[in-house]
Amino acid sequence: MTTTTSPTATRWERLRDSYLLYSFKRDLIAQVSLLVFIVLVAAAVLAPWLAPMNPYDLAQIDILASELPPFWIDGSDPAYVMGTDSQGRDLLSTILYGARVSLIIGFGAVAMQAALGVCFGLLAGYLGGRVDAFLMRLADIQLSFSTLMVAIVVGALFKAIFGGATYSAYAVPLLVLIIGLAEWPQYARTVRASVLAEKGKEYVDAARVMGLSSRRIMFRHILPNTLSPIFVISTVQVANAIISEAALSFLGLGMPETQPSLGSLIKSGFDYIQSGSWWITLIPGLVLVILVLVINLLGDWLRDVLNPRLYKG
Amino acid sequence: MIAFLIKRLFHALLVMFVISVIAFAIQDNLGDPIQQMVGQSVPESEREALREELGLNDPFAVQYLRFAANAVQFDFGYSYVFNEPTTDVILRHLPATLELVAASTFLIIALSIPIGVYSAIKPRAWLSRFFMGVSIIGISIPVFLTAIVLIQLFAIGVSWSPFPADTGWGAWLNDLLTTDGGMPAYGRGDPVPVFGTWETNFASLEGLTYLVLPAISLASIMLPLFIRLIRAEMLEVLQSDYVKFARAKGISPRRIYFLHALKNTMLPVITVGGVQIGTLVAYTILTETVFQWPGMGLMFLDAIERSDIPLIVTYLMIVGLIFVITNTLVDLIYGLVNPTVKLTGKPA
Known about the structure:
The complex is a heterodimer of chains A (313) and B (348). Chain A is built from 14 helices and no strands. With 313 residues, chain A is mostly helical. In chain A, helix 3 packs across helix 5 (91-127), helix 6 packs across helix 9 (171-199) and helix 13 packs antiparallel against helix 14. The model of chain A is unreliable at 1-5 (pLDDT under 50). Chain B contains 13 helices and two strands; from the N terminus they run H-H-H-H-H-H-H-H-E-E-H-H-H-H-H. In chain B, strands 1-2 form a two-stranded antiparallel ribbon. In chain B, strand 1 and strand 2 (198-200) form a beta hairpin. In chain B, helix 5 (86-121) packs across helix 9 (205-238), helix 7 (143-156) packs across helix 9 and helix 11 packs antiparallel against helix 13 (309-337). Chain B starts with a helix and ends in an 11-residue tail after the last helix. Chain A binds chain B through residues 72-73, 141, 144-146, 148-149, 152-153, 156-157, 159-161, 239, 243, 246-247, 250-253, 263, 266, 270, 273-274, 276, 278, 281-282, 285, 288-289, 292-293, 296-297, 300, 311-312, and chain B through 15, 18, 26, 29-30, 136-137, 139-145, 148-149, 151-152, 156, 158-160, 162, 232, 236, 275, 278-279, 281-283, 285-286, 289-290, 301, 304-305, 307, 309, 312, 316, 319-320, 323-324, 327. Chain B: Keywords: Cell membrane, Membrane, Transmembrane, Transmembrane helix, Transport. Chain B: Belongs to the binding-protein-dependent transport system permease family. Chain B: It is a multi-pass membrane protein.
């Protein structure tokens, strides 16, 4: 993928001498972004051990302690550093658990999109002809509707088909499926474009002359050479998926309030914003923005390093 | 040109066909009109007779053709909740959404072109860096959060003054945080009726104040994308030979930037931008929810809440039509303004 020093170099040596690491060392924004991202992910993953209380455990919730402000405002309780939400859950704990849900859905949805998009993109690019025309027309139509619209419609349909209770119970896998279905065209287009560029190269001809199967040529020979654009859009897509999940949750088509993601926390706080409890909405909102921002900044950096012209043309 | 037009229209019809099949499949599988028409006590045999009479037992294709024939005449049946034709319900909500989209589009065009061009002409100026920084932050803020923050700042105010009150700027910032800006953040106010069911917010100053916060929120989602797009395109155009030649000829920089370079910058912006303006309709669902703006998006969410299947289906068809029309128009305009597109063949 990046520069190779010698055929015998270990993976570590190759990484150490790579342009990727070189440019990372010189880019302060990328370093800070990665640091913040790692801290946020670690806090989310370790939420059960870090959080002062378990927001899913009804026994720990004290409704009398609801809508307490964060520590820097008068009237706060030192037991709740970031204050509490409308149900008396500790906001810091709820945010940590919420970030966990958001990240799981974000990464899951991107894995889903990538699986669909890479397969369709490879097929369209390699086989060409009618398959290509059909898949790309489908992608065009879906993209012209904006991924958010598709996600909302599919979410609404799932909710109507399964009913509200079942939908809430299986919200995580359903959201992964919905966002995956809504955003696969991004991958398919990128992969198809790289496949078209690779297809004419000699190693592909050589593989074909050797009599390898189309599937083997697509997945073992062409796919590894399309990885760098896939990495770049994956970063941006994780950010998009997290925002999409938050939007769906905000509209009531996502995570239920009993198992909140950052988006449903913002939604539940929004109902109380008129009464002055702005922190229930704005603190999870700030966490969401920081999370998405650092992923976007990393994506920008990665795009500049790996493929500056990806978003063009 | 004619061949291009026919090809585009055929494509648009094909897309509408796909949308209508999906919409009909939703109606066919989720909506049971019999249940809506008769009470609990009606026996199964009578339900079956009614089903037969209404043709609900016909094959899928026959029922679809009936649906399509009605759809062409904009007849999608009655809304369960409002008990009136769904198209009437949509038409009542359409102006609010269109005005919101129009106001946002105006903001986007008015801001993104100067900012994008400026940051391309002076890529190293601190103001350009500031704009680029703000735009990547803007991309990372979900539209409903922008809306909530705007409401908090300009309609409610925060009960918290963190800045030192003894300095001038601190007092000013505290003042900004704690007092409400007096902006309305709920609904449309009293729009002025224009003709028929169309009421406008543009005709009165009071109506415009209701439009300000929702329009800014909606614009905030697309503005960063447009600024980045225009900047990137302009930077590339400024590298091209004809701009260098114009410089060498001694044409004034202003003329080069705004007459020669901007024209070619706008070509890709039209295609991407036109489509994005269409997708603003999708984001109105979020903005309208926050501001309780009585448009189609809010109506659609209500319809989902109440399982008003005919209204959902009608919304999908109408929004699908809006998307298809904008996309087709964008393609045609692009074909007209870009002389390198072969209008007879595929657009480049």
